[in-house]
Amino acid sequence: MIKKTLDKLSISEIIKLFENLEIDEDGKVELRCTKDNFDRLGIKTFVELAQIFLYKIVDLSFKDVYIITLKKLDTNKSFHIQSADSEKYGVESEFFNINKNEEISFLYYFEKALQFVNISSRKSVLNIGVNKADEFLAIKEYLSAEEFEKKNFLGIDYSNSAIEYAKKQFMDFKNVKFLCADINKLEDISLGKFDLMISIGTLQSSNINFNAKFMELYQNHLEQDGAIILGFPNCRWIDGEMIYGAKAPNYSFNEMGLVLKDIHFCKKYLQQKGYRVVITGKDYLFLSARKISKN
Ligand SMILES: C[S@@+](CC[C@H](N)C(=O)[O-])C[C@H]1O[C@@H](n2cnc3c(N)ncnc32)[C@H](O)[C@@H]1O
Fold it and tell me: Which of 21, 56, 72 is the last residue of a domain?
């Protein structure tokens, strides 16, 4: 294990230290600093260091000095580098081990989005790319049991194993249904219209034409006064950790151009249709839209 003392180092010197750090086989780094220096740096510095340089904070203790132990993440353990088929996100995938609802920076902003679209007043909810139905679980926890059971939910995904898993999770709820179907072939099923549409981390998939699919969903499957929540991952999942910053093709660092372009397209489109649109979030950016005029 590499050991380093951070006392007296400026933030710039700490960045250089990490840029040039050569780790041992165990992948661990032990950082030490006095209480004064720990207070000067703030715990956020260690959280950010871990995020930026791909470590996990595995221990924090105090005995005369603060000792913070970091462990390098295994970048091979990421669903981003797995094959592209309908089971890429199935029960056997790395993705399936992720629980977004355990991440405060996801759940806090998702709940704010639910509040913005006035989830309590919605009667039917469609989730495009529902996977194991984390978003429905979050809504269930957010609402009272009575409010939840008054609404109808439908989740769609082409991963058969994820849909089977989701069905089991909600087997006691007659108002929650799931469908194994390809989003690119919605014309083959009579889906109907919903007054809230949710899609998190799905419409930007490489097999989907983002702009065309978004407009089709809006035109064919949203009620007149329907609301929308779209979630755009601005993070990567590596070795079980949510790492800030979207990874774009052809860039080694996080680059947000594509995410912002897609968000901007949806925002302009919905504003022209008489919607109030807000963009919030951090590791996931949420576009939430509710109707304000009868355009
Ligand atoms: C990144 S995951 C997001 C899942 C879930 N919304 C979440 O955030 O945990 C994308 C999901 O979209 C599904 N998906 C991708 N392309 C699809 C398609 N053409 N038809 C149906 N589902 C699709 C995948 O199977 C996967 O479950």
Answer: 72
- Overall domain count for the chain: 2
Task: Give Cβ neighbours of residue 186 (< 8 Å, ≥ 6 apart).
Answer: 216, 220, 221
**For residue 169, what pLDDT is reported?**
97
Q: What is the pLDDT of residues 270-284, one digit of tens each?
A: 999 999 999 999 999
- Are 44 and 102 members of one domain? no
| Mutation choice for ligand 1 from 158, 164, 184, 206, CB with most ligand atoms inside 8 A | 158
> 132 C-alpha vs ligand 1 centroid, how far in Å?
10
Q: Residue 199's domain spans which residues?
A: 79-291
145, 24: one domain: no
Residue that is last in its domain, among 54, 72, 90: 72
Is any atom of ligand 1 closer than 6 Å to the C-beta of 78?
no
Instruction: Tell me the pLDDT tens digit for each residue of 216-269.
Output: 999 999 999 999 999 999 998 888 888 898 877 777 777 888 899 999 999 999
Question: From the CB of 207, is ligand 1 less than 6 Å away?
Answer: yes
Both 126 and 266 in one domain: the answer is yes
User: pLDDT digit string (tens) for 117-126?
Assistant: 999 999 999 9
The answer, yes or no, to whether any atom of ligand 1 lies below 6 A from the CB of 100, is yes
pTM value > 0.70: yes
Strands 2-5 and 28-33, sheet pairing = parallel
pLDDT at 195: 97
What DSSP letter does each residue of 223-288 carry, written as one string?
EEEEEEEEEEE-EEEETTEEEESPBPTT-SSB--HHHHHHHHHHHHHHHHTTEEEEEEESSEEEEE
- Residue whose entry in the numeric block shows the structure tokens 């549409």: 197
118 shares a domain with 187: yes
**Pair 39, 139 in one domain:** no
